[in-house]
Amino acid sequence: MRERSTFGDTWLLPIASLLVPLMLLAMVAWRDYDQAFDHAERHVERTGALVYEHTLRQFETFRFSVEAAAERIEGLSWAQIAASEEIHRYLARVDDGFSQVGSVWLYAPDGRAAISSLRFPAGNVSAADRDYFVALRDGEAGDVFISATYPGRTTGRMGFNVARRHSAPDGSFNGVILVAVYIQEFRAFFERVIDDPRDSVWVVRADGTVLALDREGPLVTLSPDSGFRRAVATAPEAGMFRATAEIDGVERIFAYRKLSGFPVYVVYGRAVETVREQWAGGLAVDALVAVPLALLLATVSWLVVRKARSERAAVIRYREEEARRRRAEELLEKVQRLEMLGQIAGGIAHDFNNLLMVITSNLYLAQARAAKGAEGAGPFIDTAMQAAYRGGQLTQQLLTFSRQQTLKPEAIDLPASLNAMVDGMLKRSLRGDIEVRTDLPPDTWPIEADRAQLELAVLNLAVNARDAMPGGGRLTVRAANVRPDGGPDAPAGLRGDFVALSVVDTGCGIDPAVRDRVFDPFFTTKEVGKGTGLGLSQVFGFASQSGGMVTLDSTVGQGTTVTLYLPRATGTVAGTTGSGPARLPDGCGRRILLVEDSPEIGRTTTTLLEGFGYTVTLVDNARAALDTLASGRAFDLVLSDIVMPGDLNGLDLARTVRDRYAGLPIMLTTGYSTAATAAVEDGFVLLHKPYRPEALAEAISDLLKAAAPGTA
């Protein structure tokens, strides 16, 4: 019996050495097969989401371009539009500003091109037979139509069109506004995203018309029996399916998602053959390891244990890396959205400030003339002036949330400043059923911040608190000295001396579902017309630019606390000075060279300066200014805008004048420019638009006095 048992054991060892590894290999192969397809589906979902975000931003850019063109031609006839070279240049700037936009076209109701971004005049181009024009004209589509892809009649490049119906005041059809999109822009991005040549990315219209692919090839219309059309019929917004593509006959795992606000889908697919090859490659490696180890059961067992441990560690590392990558992608997407909004806000601020400059200056002249005899005009002009300067404050708010506003930090005594603000402006901004309290200890450290932006931030928080307490409540403004150590419990990792300024209300609180978005620009939970979504974004931008941070703590039904951490000031607190009467000096015929590319602002500023007694020479660019100075004409001061067309801007002009004409005073003005900070750092006097005419007069007088002491 002992011998038979030993004999059996000797056979069991080779059998076990052969069968156990083969069984384990089969189990691993089965498991890896499922994991390979699970991993492929996750890859398709992640990459499809990335392509979706990129494509959505592209289409939102197209929508913005169309809406910008529609706003620009509002109220104009087609004859006026076709004859306006300025509108052509405006469309060309929109075209050049976005690489995704191929060209912008405006078509009259008869289908003929009135104007475009490519050339002026638009030429003999007709879209009367194009699918987008027919659909929008006959009412077969909504206000926006995405055309099929075909070669452009002007450029010959393959692309599709995003067209919008232009309506007359009575709602009838009044032409089409169109943005031409070249699919090469999409293809270039898709090629960067794809890591396997058999993968595929599509942009598909809701009816199955393929608009763009990741590769050269025919753009077909998918049949109703295609996997995509069947999947969309079941889940219209997003989903996954596995099918053989009609485009190239390759079986793939697809993820699709509909672009928000557009009848367009983004589809990303990974070839099933690719997944199988990856699985087979892994299986081959496993087999090469497992089969030789079948000679020794102990060695096989040891390798199995080691492999299991290695796999578990690899899964953990993979999940950690996936989580880090997901967090990085989310942060990158948020930064890109904020950067885009910041650029748009900066451009709006520049044009808006130029308009405000014309409004305020002309109102000032009208106000002066009304004071000489026109009765009844004064109150209306004063109201218009205040509204215009309020527009300037909104511009500063836009620039603050875009992180492009130049702050003027100073040492501020919080108890003194905020007690006066609470007793004055803040209480007047709130209702009588809201009790306002302050807790501002006299030993509160002074802070380093921009005074105007500080008051605007507190006012924004108070107004939000007021709206959160429709039935009344209590608002508390308090401050405390804090010294965070930069550890995990410190807000945003702050380290050093800060003052925690808190605005506390007893209102309805904030829903946790939207709490992480309240500081995003243009995000608001208020009804339409009751909030822009810029208030809390301004607070966040102000705190960040001041070198601090803002936190929010809210409980639904109990209230909200918003805390600004502002850095402690190192300098002394400056005293506040009252604003005395405006100084309107007599220019005494002094000669000013005015450099301004805007004809409206140039004429208005010239009239203002001549009203102050100055003799003004107006030129519209920096080159003309240098030629005027080189002609030998004498001037007492050069006044120039910073943003101008041509190869020289106002700052370049100022530097050249300072080098060539030592002692000639120079003053720069701007409504918005990234060069404003550089101008101040170079020592030039800078006046921000919109400015009051009195401020212009005082600044010129001060600069002339500094250049020639003892003169007026």
What is the element layout, followed by pairings?
Elements: H1 2-72, H2 78-82, H3 85-97, E1 103-107, E2 113-116, H4 131-137, E3 144-146, E4 150-151, E5 158-167, E6 173-182, H5 183-193, E7 200-205, E8 210-213, H6 227-234, E9 238-244, E10 251-258, E11 264-271, H7 272-290, H8 297-370, H9 378-401, E12 409-412, H10 414-429, E13 434-439, E14 447-450, H11 451-467, E15 473-482, E16 498-505, H12 535-545, E17 549-555, E18 559-567, E19 591-595, H13 599-611, E20 615-619, H14 622-630, E21 637-641, H15 650-660, E22 666-670, H16 676-681, E23 685-688, H17 693-707
Parallel strand pairs: 13-15, 19-20, 19-21, 21-22, 22-23
Antiparallel strand pairs: 1-2, 1-6, 3-5, 4-5, 5-6, 7-8, 7-11, 9-10, 10-11, 12-14, 15-16, 16-18, 17-18
Write a short abstract of this structure.
The chain is an alpha+beta fold and 712 residues long. Helices cover 46% and strands 20% of the residues.
Q: What is the CATH C-level name of the largest domain?
A: Alpha Beta
**SS field, number of helical segments:** 17
How many distinct domains? 5
Shape: globular
Q: Could you report the average pLDDT, rounded to the nearest whole number?
A: 79
Category from helices, strands and their pairing:
alpha+beta
Radius of gyration: 34 Å
The H-level CATH homologous superfamily of the largest domain, spelled out, is PAS domain
Tell me the number of strands.
Answer: 23
CATH topology category name of the largest domain: Beta-Lactamase
The main sheet comes to: 6 strands, antiparallel
Q: Which strand-content bin applies to the residues?
A: 15-25%
By oligomeric state, this entry counts as single chain
| Low-confidence sequence ranges | 1-10, 528-533, 576-583
Q: What's the architecture of the largest domain, going by CATH?
A: 2-Layer Sandwich
Query: Whole-Å distance between the termini?
Result: 127 Å
Percent in helix:
40-55%
